[in-house]
Amino acid sequence: MEPPTLPISASAQKKRRRPALACEACRRRKVRCDRNLPCGTCVRSKNALCTYTTQATTNNTNASTLGRKHRDESPKHGFPQSGSAALALPEPILYQPLPTPRHSAPSSTRAADSDDPSPIHIPGLTASAGEHSGPADFGLWQPVIQPRPAPVAAVPSGSVRDTASTPGSSSNHGSSSTVNSLVDRVKQLEQQLSDLMVRGDDRDEMAAVESTVMREGLRYSRGCVSKTRFFGQSHWMNAADMLCRLVTFAKKFENEKTTYLYQGLEKCKNLGRIIKARRTPTFATISIGKNMPSREVADALIDAYLRTFESVQRIIHIPTFKAEYERYWQKPSEVNEPFIVLMQLCMAIGATFHDERFTSRNLAIQWFWEGMFWLMMPCEKSRMTMTGLQIRCLMHYLRHTANIGCDLSWIGAGSLVRTAIYMGLHRDPKGLVKMTPYRAEMRRRLWASILEIALQSAIDAGGPPLVSARDYDTEPPANLDDAQLVEDMDSAFPVPKDAKTFTQMTVPLALHATLPARLAVTARVNDFRSDTVYEETLRYSSELSSALQRMMQQLKSHREISQFAMRYAQFMTYRLFFALHQPIIPLALRNPIYYFSRKVSVDTALRLCENSLLTPGKDGAGAMRPADTSERDFLWLTVNGAGAYRSVPFQAVMTVGLELIHQKEDEIKNGPSMSFAGPEFRGILDAVTGWSRARIKSGETNIKGHALSVLLVAHLQVLEAGVDDERVEKHFERACEERVTECYDLLKELVGDDVPEEGVGIGAPDIHDLDMDFEVGTDMLGEWDWESMDNGGFISTLNFGNIDMMFP
């Protein structure tokens, strides 16, 4: 007979003095547990089950134990906890690692032997920051920093009961009461999680999650490569990734050399080469001071320069310049050569505003190369003077007004900055040798202009600004008129006027006050190592907006400021909003969290279109007409100029056109809606057609902008007409063929009738062509190389070697 089994008394059972905080697998293996859910040990061992033991004496749990458990729980897992919704114990989870996204970026803090789970969709958000649909050339948009996981979906109780009853769990660790307690706990957590998702008083928790999403880095293009050049984020070509459908159409005809469209474009390109070759001066014609116009024309050109560029960027001292200018016309032989070069460059810039067709373009290019020849002459140290710096600054402006290799001006700007630093302009005159107030103020003025040149060229090229606030201590110029500055060692420093008093320095000082904010934005967007956290983007945008608002309030308080100066200041400052927000537009089209970037981009585009007189006129026929000479000057700058004066208006028009296309696509999906901006947007697209046509008439040989504006309008037409996909490309092709034929006639008018027919045929590419072959989807018919016409081949003709890389 077997002995009777005696019941074990409660006192004989071993009691635990503290709750078991480690998971069951770690306790069984006797290894350290990080108490996450799932814990790191289970993740590394690929254990499919990570559970925690439920304590039977939950009612006796003291407050200190709950507080300690709340602190131990990692904030990276699960929703923020508050009030009754807080989870007292971790729920069991059947963990199965998800496949890592193809484009996910590894975190710098991730252990080498760990496999972090992929981000899980956050309920309540239409689209997470983890993945966003983007242009076909980019694939999926991925965050630089992986989003934190959202709460894991509740596991059905039945599956938990089955899991808990397996030999690896309940059979090894507890009785059936423990399993029932675990199932009850899971049901309770399911209810709490359901209440958390629908309860109205927990909206702050969802806001915290959205804020976390905004703190995560976004993956978007930080630049693109074109052969030997890298364009950073602020370069306007980076915005072309939004033109996916139009780019796809352009690529299709890249190799179809038998089509009428390809042959027409190739003929336009060769006509452009002929026009550029005729503008190129020969080495024998480079003679300083031998190509002077009449006194009447020279006076008009100098006056045009003084009322435009000199009113916004101070380079010369006007009284001193005018006195020397008069002496030149009285006795030309008594004026030194550097002043003749300086005077010619001023006239060359003024020629941009002399007439609408820029009839003096060839003469302006001739004067530019005479200035380059002067800088190349022997004894380079003798060029390191204030006049030499002024000549370099004016040559930089002339590159952009006369389209002389302006796409390489950032290289020359770097040389200009280093030359100025080598001459000590980065140090305030108070810390240098004693000098007259005239010399001290001219140094401050010239340094402020050089900083602006470095900043604007960096924005154009998509490169770093090459200078920071730590690199100089030069104070801003004083609010003085030129007449107050006299070259006299015994003269006292003149008393600066109040900021409310208008002077010749009012506009340059207002621009200079926004330099720190613009410098910070440029450094951020063009630094490939900078973060892409959206919250930081909003902060930089807010600081830039505040600085520009103060600038506009100051400028509007002075009625004496010309319309040219007002429009120029807005044009050169508000363009930075494109660099900040346009890369995020593809995300904003699919995720409302980023809608602010879409709105800022559209608002900036409308402002710049109005600024460039590309909005519909009051009569509704064509673009707005200039009201006075000052407005006309700015219009002619955008028509005759190049660089930013061409790319920024086109960038604005492209943004407006894309916004209108997206509105039409939304109407197709969701039904018609009332849009008050539709007619205004369409009027801008119609106005830009006339603007691009005027540019070709004034000597522009690049027809790419004209063709793309036509494609935008054609895209809207097919959306409005409901044309099927098979007929869309045919419509695009017909629209482009019409514009190419028009451009060919305009270019042939510029060339003249003495060009043989074989001179405009399909020829081999020029050795100096800079093929726009972008890997990111902006290859706009790369073999036709429209952008290469920016560089006129001057270096080759004059045999200057790489001198363009050293001088502005």
Automatic annotation (TrEMBL):
Keyword Zinc-finger found: no
Concerning CDD domains, the annotation shows: fungal_TF_MHR, GAL4
Q: Name one GO cellular component term.
A: nucleus
GO terms for biological process, alphabetical: DNA-templated transcription
Please name the SMART domains in this protein's record.
Fungal_trans, GAL4
Instruction: State where composition is biased (Low complexity).
Output: 165-180
Classification via SUPFAM superfamilies:
Zn2/Cys6 DNA-binding domain
Question: Start and end of every Zn(2)-C6 fungal-type domain?
Answer: 22-52
* InterPro entries in the record: Fungal_TF_Env_Response, XnlR_reg_dom, Zn2-C6_fun-type_DNA-bd_sf, Zn2Cys6_DnaBD
For this UniProt record, give its keywords in alphabetical order, as a comma-separated list.
DNA-binding, Metal-binding, Nucleus, Transcription, Transcription regulation, Zinc
Provide any one GO MF term from the record: zinc ion binding
Question: Which residue ranges are recorded for the region named Disordered?
Answer: 59-180
User: Zinc among the record's keywords?
Assistant: yes
* Descriptive protein name: Transcription factor lepE
